[in-house]
Task: inverse folding
């Protein structure tokens, strides 16, 4: 298993290939249908008050029951992946098959898509701290900053290839 610590640098991704098992530690941001389109608007308006350069974003809601990835190919989520990758996000974590255009945009921006097991209890045990950083009115779909240790995943899209 290859260990990744956020924030991620381009060189960190060069040693990864599709199918590699990884574990991510450090800070992971969360977002899904309600938060990610709003995040794009904040970036476009230069209104974001935290840095996404080298960030990882998990497509999930956050509740006391835990975190588990949602389907990433929903329009509200997948449509944000190219823009967020262009603006510094290096790892997108979720589940599901992404379009060929999204695969190409990930390759162009040296970003990757990671799938992780949809097991809320397992993933919740890896969260050391959580803090709402944006869109609090969205409840569990607000954007959170998670301090995590050893979130497991498999590289699903990288270098223009997909499993």
Result:
């Amino acid at each position: 298993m290859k260990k990744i610590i956020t924030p991620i640098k381009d060189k960190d991704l060069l040693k990864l290939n599709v199918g590699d098992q990884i574990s991510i530690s450090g800070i992971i941001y969360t977002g899904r249908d309600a938060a990610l389109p709003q995040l794009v608007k904040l970036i476009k308006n230069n209104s974001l008050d935290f840095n996404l350069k080298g960030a990882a974003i998990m497509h999930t809601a956050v509740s006391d029951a835990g975190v588990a990835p949602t389907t990433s190919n929903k329009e509200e989520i997948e449509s944000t992946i190219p823009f967020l990758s262009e603006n510094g996000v290096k790892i997108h974590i979720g589940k599901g098959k992404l379009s060929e255009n999204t695969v190409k945009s990930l390759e162009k921006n040296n970003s990757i898509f990671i799938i992780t097991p949809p097991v809320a209890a397992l993933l919740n045990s890896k969260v050391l701290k959580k803090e709402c950083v944006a869109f609090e009115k969205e409840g569990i779909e607000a954007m959170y900053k998670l301090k995590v240790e050893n979130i497991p995943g498999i590289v699903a899209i990288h270098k223009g290839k997909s499993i």
